[in-house]
Specification:
Structural class of chain B: alpha+beta
Order of helices and strands of chain B: HEHEEHEE
CATH class of the largest domain in chain A: Mainly Alpha
Strand order of the largest sheet of chain B: 2-3-5
Number of domains of chain A: 2
Largest interface: A-B, 33 and 27 residues
Radius of gyration of chain A: 22 Å
Shape of chain A: globular
Strand content of chain A: 5-15%
Oligomer: heterodimer
Helix content of chain B: 10-25%
CATH topology of the largest domain in chain A: Cytochrome-c3 Hydrogenase, chain B
CATH class of chain B: Alpha Beta
Helix content of chain A: 40-55%
CATH topology of chain B: Alpha-Beta Plaits
Number of domains of chain B: 1
Number of helices of chain A: 16
Distance between the termini of chain A: 36 Å
Number of helices of chain B: 3
CATH architecture of chain B: 2-Layer Sandwich
C-alpha cells in the first residue's frame, strides 16, 4: 500500500509553455514524468495564430512579398524566395538566370547563418557557453555579408516576383569570397570540436533517439530526418532555383541521436559554403529580373523549398485580380512536432532542452513550466532558464553514471 | 575518442586579442553602403502619382494634398509603421524616394515619426 502511494506520487505532469515573447511559434508541451523519466508527451499548438494567411488575401502580390518574409525571422529568405517563385509559376514567368543564381546564393548564405545560430543555441542548452559565444562571434561574418548584399541583417527583401532586387558587383563578390574563406576555416574547426569534445558527446550521443521507421511514419523533414538516415532533400529531389546546376552533397547520418543532428548541420554548413563559392564563381551575366504584370489569371500552384529547418510549403490560388484568393503556408517545425514528441519519450527531464532544441524549432516556448503534484496539488513554476540550469546541475550530479550507461549501448 | 578541453588552445590564443564585442552605442557602428534606413524624400522630383502608397505593404505612406507637385498630391511617410523594405524606392518612377543609412530612429512621440515636407 505504502509502496503504491510512493509509486503514484512519482508521476507528475509538467506543462511547458505556451508563452514566450521571443518565440515565433508558441507551443505548449505537457510532459508526464515518472521520477526523472519522461513517459508521455502531449502538445497544443496555435498560440501564435496571427491571421497572416487571411491578411495575405487583402494585400497585392507585391505587398505579400514582405508579409511572407516576416513569417519567420531566421529563414526569411526561404519564405520570401518560396513565395516569389510560386507566384512566378502562377503567372507563368521565369526569372533570368542571374536572378535565380543570386536568389540561390542568398538561400545558402541564410542556411549558413541559421545552422551556425542553431549550433550556438545547442551548445548553450547543454551549458557549453564558451562554444556558444565563439560560434555566434563567427556567425557575425555571414550576417555582415548578408547586410552588405541586401541592406539588412535579417529581413533581406532580396527576392521579388520575377527575379531579385539587387545585383552583386565584382567588388562585393571579392568581399563575400573572403568572408566565406573565414567561415569555412571556422566551421571545419567547430566540426572537429563537435566530434571530439567530451562535453558535447556526453550530452548528445545516444540522446533523443528517433528511429528511421518512426521518422518515415511521422514525416519528419529536413536535418531532423537526415540525421535519422532518411535520405531526403528537396534541393536534390525536386530541384528549384539553381540547385539543378550547383554541385552539392546531401548529408545523411544514421545514428538517429542529437549528435547526428549536430553533425548533419555542421556538414551542411560546410556544403553551403562550398555552394556559395561555386555560385559566385559561376555567376551568369545578364538581367536580374523580368517584368511582372500585376494581375494574375485564375490558377493554383504548390511550391516548396528546402528551408534551413526542412521542407517549406506554399500553396497559392489566384483569381484574376492583383491579390491572391488563398495563400497557405506549412512550415517545417509543424512537420517536426510529432517526431520531437517521440524523441522525448523515454528520456530524462534534463534532456528535454537539448532534444527539443534538436529539431531547431522556435524553441523559446519553454519559458514557463508549471509543476503540478497531482496528489498534494502543490504547484510551482519553472521557466526555460531554470529548466536549463536544472538540466546542467542534474548532469553534474548524475552525469557520470548516465553517460557511462549510454556508451555501453 | 572523447577528450575534454578541446577548446583550450583556441581560448589561450584569445588572451592577446581584442574583445569581439561592438561597443555600441558608445562607439558608432558603420552600416554598409546600400543599407535600408530612414526615408529621404525629394519633393522637387515628385509628381504625386501615388505608386509608392499603393505598393507599401505596411500602409506607412498616405497621399496628402500639395500644390507643389504635378498631380497636386504628395506622399506623407509615417515611419513608425515603416518596415524598411524599400519597395517605395523601387516603385517610384522619378527617383524621389531614397533610403538612407540613418538607423537610430526611436522616439518618445509617435506624432514626430513622420516625414513631412
Amino acid at each position: 500500500m505504502l509502496e503504491e502511494e510512493v509509486e503514484e506520487k512519482r508521476v507528475f505532469k509538467i506543462p511547458v509553455g505556451p508563452q514566450h515573447p521571443a518565440l515565433k511559434e508558441f507551443e505548449n508541451f505537457t510532459f508526464t514524468v515518472d521520477g526523472e523519466k519522461v513517459i508521455d508527451v502531449d502538445f497544443r499548438i496555435g498560440y501564435t495564430h496571427r491571421g497572416i494567411e487571411k491578411l495575405a488575401e487583402s494585400k497585392t502580390y507585391i505587398q505579400n512579398l514582405y508579409l511572407c518574409e516576416r513569417i519567420c525571422g531566421i529563414c526569411s529568405a526561404a519564405h520570401q524566395g518560396c513565395y516569389a517563385q510560386t507566384v512566378e509559376e502562377l503567372a507563368g514567368i521565369t526569372a533570368p538566370p542571374r536572378g535565380v543564381y543570386i536568389r540561390t546564393l542568398i538561400w545558402e548564405l541564410e542556411r549558413i547563418h541559421s545552422h551556425l545560430l542553431w549550433l550556438g543555441v545547442a551548445a548553450h542548452e547543454i551549458g557549453f557557453d564558451t562554444l556558444f559565444m565563439l560560434i555566434w562571434r563567427d556567425r557575425e561574418v555571414v550576417m555582415s555579408l548578408l547586410e552588405m548584399i541586401s541592406g539588412n541583417r535579417v529581413n533581406y527583401a532580396m527576392s521579388t516576383v520575377g527575379g531579385v532586387r539587387r545585383d552583386i558587383s565584382d567588388e562585393l563578390k571579392h568581399k563575400i569570397l573572403k568572408g566565406l574563406d573565414v567561415l569555412e576555416e571556422r566551421t571545419k574547426y567547430y566540426k572537429e570540436v563537435c566530434m571530439k569534445e567530451q562535453t558535447i558527446l556526453a550530452r548528445a550521443a545516444n540522446v533523443g533517439i528517433l528511429s528511421k521507421e518512426k521518422t518515415l511514419k511521422l514525416n519528419a523533414v529536413g536535418p531532423t530526418a537526415r540525421a535519422s538516415g532518411v535520405d531526403v532533400d528537396i534541393r536534390r529531389d525536386d530541384p528549384y532555383g539553381a540547385y539543378d546546376e550547383v554541385p552539392f552533397e546531401v548529408i545523411v547520418y544514421d545514428t538517429c541521436d542529437v549528435l547526428a543532428r549536430i553533425l548533419v548541420r555542421v556538414d551542411e554548413t560546410i556544403q553551403s559554403i562550398l555552394m556559395s563559392r561555386w555560385i559566385l564563381e559561376n555567376l551568369p551575366s545578364g538581367e536580374i529580373r523580368t517584368k511582372f504584370a500585376r494581375k494574375i489569371a485564375e490558377n493554383e500552384v504548390l511550391g516548396r523549398v528546402e528551408a534551413p529547418r526542412g521542407e517549406l510549403l506554399y500553396y497559392i490560388k489566384s483569381n484574376g485580380t492583383d491579390k491572391p484568393e488563398r495563400l497557405k503556408v506549412r512550415t517545417p517545425t509543424l512537420a517536426n512536432l510529432l517526431p520531437v514528441a517521440e524523441m522525448l519519450k523515454g528520456g530524462y527531464i534534463a534532456d528535454i532542452p537539448i532534444v527539443l532544441a534538436g529539431i531547431d524549432p522556435c524553441f523559446a516556448c519553454m519559458d514557463r513550466a508549471l509543476f503540478i503534484d497531482e496528489n498534494s496539488e502543490k504547484t510551482w513554476v519553472w521557466d526555460k532558464e531554470q529548466l536549463r540550469i536544472y538540466s546542467i546541475k542534474w548532469y553534474k550530479e548524475h552525469g557520470k553514471e548516465v553517460v557511462r550507461e549510454r556508451w555501453k549501448q | 575518442m572523447p577528450v575534454p578541453g578541446t577548446l583550450e588552445k583556441e581560448l589561450l590564443s584569445h588572451i592577446s586579442k581584442k574583445p569581439a564585442t561592438e561597443m555600441y552605442p558608445f562607439v558608432k557602428v558603420e552600416v554598409p553602403e546600400g543599407y535600408r534606413g530612414k526615408i529621404e524624400f525629394n519633393i522637387e522630383k515628385c509628381i504625386g502619382c501615388g505608386l509608392c502608397s499603393r505598393d507599401c505593404p505596411a500602409g506607412a505612406i498616405e497621399m496628402v494634398e500639395d500644390e507643389r507637385t504635378k498631380l497636386k498630391k504628395r506622399p506623407k511617410f509615417i515611419y513608425s509603421r515603416c518596415l524598411y523594405c524599400a519597395q517605395c524606392e523601387e516603385s517610384c518612377p522619378r527617383e524621389a524616394i531614397k533610403l538612407t543609412r540613418e538607423f537610430e530612429l526611436a522616439d518618445y512621440d509617435k506624432e514626430r515619426m513622420v516625414i513631412d515636407v
